[in-house]
Amino acid sequence: MDFKYFKGQHCETVTTGTLLKNIGIELSEPMLFGIGEGFGYIFWNMKIMDFPFIGGRIKPDSLTENITRNLNLNLKVKETTSIKKAWFNVKENLDNKIPVGLKLDSYFLDYFTSKIHFAGHYIVAYAYDEKTAYVVDTEQQGSLKQVSLKNLELARNEKGPMSSRNKSFTIRKKRKDYILEEVIITAILNNAKEYLNPPIKNIGYKGILKTSTEIKKWFKTSKDIEGDFKTTAMLMEKAGTGGAIFRNFYRDFLKESYDILKIKNIKKSQKIFVEIANLWTEVSSLFEKTGETKNIKHINKASEILVYLSEKEKFAVELLANIRC
User: Can you point out the beta strands (E) in 9-105?
Assistant: First the structure.
């Protein structure tokens, strides 16, 4: 099997990027994130969750759906409640030397050292033997890894927030190719419209503003301040769920886009995103300090920055909503 894998920081772009690379399409991780209309925000708090979830992107699955739609590719998705059928859906592709994207709970993956239930994780399976599946994950996890077939089964079949029914997917080309310049403009306008018109107040720039008050409540009610805020900081900055990593992606996507299109509003917005990305890193650092010191002063400071970020992101995206060639 002449298998090629994508090196990157975020699980869904690494997974989709790997599938694309194996059909001859190579784009950077920021470009994949951008044309996938991935920029977003959500503050999600449910009673069944140990602590609130801060997400800096659109909902799981949508990124891959948008990438394949915008690039005029065929995305074939399979889901099933049958464990036997779930493995068959993967095995039949691997036997034909076709890598398969999988959505699962990272808790059960042999190589994960942070044992947190997160059912919105993505990997690629590219080979298997009697006991083991050979997979691609993020660079943080070591890229090329192995997982026992039993643990892979448990990971894929786990229930809970963001989980799917043993989801697997493949990507194939269609006859008609894409024009990258057109794809970029379409993706930017779609993403801007989505971000600026959140259906509820915990999404988009309104969600960031809401988070500025909710984190104070969270601090006061948390049963494990150290664990809650340190884990959230790690997820935001390194693991690919929160604001910082995705603002870095979108900043770099806008730079690539300007280099291709030379549209002034893209350059103006990109410069603002440089500051935005740095501020999200500061927020995650303040969460880390909160976990270390259990001092609310760090949360109060993070709250102030979030108010500013809400305004700043809204302005930067409004520039993008009005791009003209």
Answer: 39-44, 53-57, 73-78, 100-104
Nearest to 183 by CA among 74, 68, 317, 319: 68
Work out the average pLDDT over 21-28. Answer: 97
Nearest in space to 134 (alpha carbons), one of 143, 144, 120: 144
Instruction: Tell me which amino acid residue 319 is.
Output: L
Judged against a pLDDT cut of 60, whether residue 254 lies above it is answered with yes
DSSP 194: H
pTM of the predicted model, to two decimals?
0.93
The residues with which 168 forms a beta bridge, in sequence order, are 78, 102
* Dist CA 40 CA 207 (whole Å): 10
Residue with token string 């090329």: 144
Nearest alpha-carbon partner for 16 in 35, 39, 2 = 35
Alpha-carbon span 292 to 225, nearest angstrom: 9
Neighbours of 174 (CB within 10 A): 11
Spatial separation of the C-alpha atoms in residues 189 and 187, rounded to whole Å: 6
By C-alpha distance, which of 163, 97, 164 is closest to 134?
A: 97
d(CA 227, CA 288): 10
Q: Which of these, 218, 221, 236, lies nearest to 300 by C-alpha position? A: 218
Encode pLDDT of 190-211 as tens digits. 999 999 999 999 999 999 999 9
